[in-house]
Amino acid sequence: MVDADQTFVIVGGGLAGAKAAETLRAEGFTGRVILISDERDHPYERPPLSKGYLLGKEERDSVFVHEPAWYAQNDIELHLGHTVDAIDRTAKTVRFGEDGTVVHYDKLLLTTGAEPRRLDIPGTDLAGVHHLRRLAHAERLKGVLAALGRDNGHIVIAGAGWIGLEVAAAAREYGAEVTVVEPEPTPLHGVLGPELGQLFAELHREHGVRFHFGVRLTEIIGQDGVVLAARTDDGEEHPAHDVLAAIGAAPRTALAEAAGLEIADRAHGGGVVVDGRLRTSDPDIYAAGDVASFPHPLFGTALRVEHWANALNGGPAAARAMLGRDVVYDRVPYFFSDQYDLGMEYSGWAPPGSYDEVVIRGDAGKREFVAFWLKEGRVLAGMNVNVWDVTDPIQRLIRAGARVSAEALADPHAPLDSLIP
Questions:
Q1: Is the pLDDT of residue 1 over 70?
Q2: 155 has which bridge partners?
Q3: Quick check: 236 and 213 in contact, CB under 8 A?
Q4: The pTM is what?
Q5: Alpha carbon distance 317, 309 (integer Å)
Q6: Fewest Cβ atoms nearer than 10 Å: which of 78, 106, 337, 374?
Q7: Mean pLDDT of 42-69
């Protein structure tokens, strides 16, 4: 029974944590809600950091989940700039802040997110080496790209994933020279496989990006604290004034590990293990967003999903579960990207090795198409590129799990809705 005497604590001030707090109040919870974030900014959304805000097309205030006054108006106790350094599961307390403040919880939600993976090579202490995860990172990088564009400067980006490519597109729009270094043979190889990854390589090459595939950075060369070049393991040196490390993100599990909660192995993303209700190995502690590894019934495996929609939906689902509602978290993974004049949405999960066929509906050459990844005739994932209002039928096809004719999927005259059993 949930009542006004209970205290729910949320650790992590990103989108998942903020939406969880919102949901608790919307569902009628009248107890204490304490939201603790180690960032000094109010909770914000991360997609604009590599898209509109980085490009200067969106104002800084547009990234925040709620207006600052919303938290007081909804009686959310917000602690910004405070790190939680311990969970005592026996006493049901968390300790945070420099003064070691201790608060009791009846239910605890971990939305601690992820952090950029670091390059383990010489030269990463130079001033021109960057990561992109937080608002402060985006603010700094925005100024860097503008300066590189003015001065015909050069940025080397380690990693051709979503962040690497979106920053590459932004850098070119500012006028900077861009080289992307990627150990795989194509961009986005781990998500799209080689079939569609090549399309993104062609897109960026048309806009002047240089790619160096099949290699890794081994050293960032500098002088007097300034970046001069980046060296790859084939011995090449790439001129650079700045370097962006975009080699993925690691779940922030240290707090959960120290508390003795179960952690997934690297094969399942390495996050905090939760069940279908987003409950950890401790029945009074939940986890959501980038940090959670949850069992997905559609794909028959545990997934850790680092995208916006997972935070948007996972936070509220965890909040409802904390309130005792009947929750099964089985959202189809979804994300979107904007690069130059290409806009895309991806639904599902189909890493290389999990599918046996890729079907294209539309004109991939004109970059107006829908791609489907299939396994034994069943749709595992779909990506629409410059084609809109098809996400719902794509997700229904994935959920249906039924065999679908590849010819019908490829036929633009066959409505997707008509293929859903």
A1: no
A2: 178, 242
A3: no
A4: 0.95
A5: 12
A6: 106
A7: 95
